[in-house]
Design a protein that fits this description.
It is built from 9 helices and 8 strands. The protein has 317 residues and is α+β, with helices and mostly antiparallel strands. Among the domains are: 45 residues, no CATH class; 106 residues, Tetrahydropterin Synthase, Chain A, CATH 3.30.479.30. It starts with a helix and ends in a 19-residue tail after the last helix.
Length: 317
């Protein structure tokens, strides 16, 4: 009798230990527990730490409350200005309501991924290429709103969305490179023209200042000669005084009136006879060709019937 009682106590103790182990659950700090009893959701959400459930009747589902980083596969689309691009992004989200994340949607991760892909395609079609390349903050905000609107009913909060990379066709890359090169060349030419304008103004002021004192021009010439001679080259510079050039110019101006006077003193008769003789020779030479051409034009051109038949050669047999 005592042995049977001890056996029953040991069996009950073993069953109690097994049930206790089956009912014991541990929820981590970054998790929350959702309990279903006979398929019905219990009202309480189990917090982190040790918790107990009813074996066989209860089921505990743990939901991760950490921020999830989900990459969005690259989506290919056509922008509003008809450029084919390939864009990929990344979505950061977390679960704020564990019960809704389990009940409202079958797999909230897959649902968020599909919504992100469709929203990304929609953003590509509504945006220009310049916006995708330079104004990404505005596009990220719009994409976040588009994904967060349906995700609120799933117990999920979209923390942020970032566009990672925008892939362009090779032809578009070359066109943009040529455009950037042309823009840089235009700015370089504008800067060069501005420098030339400023230099011309300074040179004009320097010329006006040197015109007042001719000695300054001589000093500038000597400075230039010294600068050229300082370099190691085989160039020989011979400076010519400006006064010498002015003296030569004055001498040429004095000779011009003398030559003009000599040509006017020639006798009129001799000049007329020489001119007449010079004109008579070409006139006599040109008269002969004119007579020959007039004689040829006066001859009548014979027709085909008036022409004499040409003699045919006879062949002796």
């Amino acid at each position: 009798m005592i042995d049977a009682l001890v056996t029953v106590v040991v069996v009950l103790a073993c069953l109690g230990v097994v049930c206790a182990l089956a009912a014991a659950r541990v929820v981590k700090q970054y998790e929350r527990g959702v309990v279903f009893r006979l398929g019905r959701l219990r009202s309480g959400i189990r917090g982190p730490g040790f918790t107990m459930i009813t074996p066989v009747f209860d089921r505990l589902h743990k939901v991760n409350m950490q921020i999830v980083t989900m990459p969005v596969p690259a989506q290919e689309g056509i922008t509003r200005d008809n450029v084919t691009v390939r864009v990929d992004a990344v979505v950061y989200f977390k679960v704020v309501d564990p019960a809704e994340a389990i009940i409202a949607v079958e797999d909230y991760r897959f649902a968020v991924s599909q919504m992100a892909q469709t929203s990304l395609r929609s953003i590509i079609g509504k945006s220009d290429l310049d916006d995708l390349l330079s104004n990404r903050e505005k596009l990220n905000q719009g994409l976040e709103l588009m994904i967060d609107s349906p995700a609120v009913g799933w117990g999920v909060h979209i923390d942020r969305v970032e566009i990672k990379d925008v892939s362009l066709p090779e032809t578009m890359k070359r066109s943009m490179a040529r455009q950037a090169e042309a823009d840089r060349e235009r700015r370089a030419r504008v800067i060069n023209a501005d420098a030339e304008l400023q230099a011309s103004k300074k040179l004009a002021e320097a010329a006006a200042q040197m015109s007042e004192s001719p000695a300054a021009l001589q000093l500038r010439l000597l400075q230039t000669v010294m600068a050229v001679s300082a370099e190691k080259n085989s160039t020989l510079v011979l400076p010519i005084p400006v006064e010498l050039l002015r003296f030569l110019e004055r001498g040429q101006e004095d000779e011009r009136p003398l030559t003009a006077g000599r040509t006017e003193r020639k006798p009129e008769g001799a000049g007329a006879e020489s001119v007449a003789g010079a004109e008579a020779v070409p006139a006599a030479d040109s008269a002969a060709p004119r007579a020959v051409t007039e004689e040829r034009s006066a001859r009548p051109v014979p027709t085909l019937t008036e022409r004499e038949p040409e003699p045919r050669p006879t062949v002796e047999r």
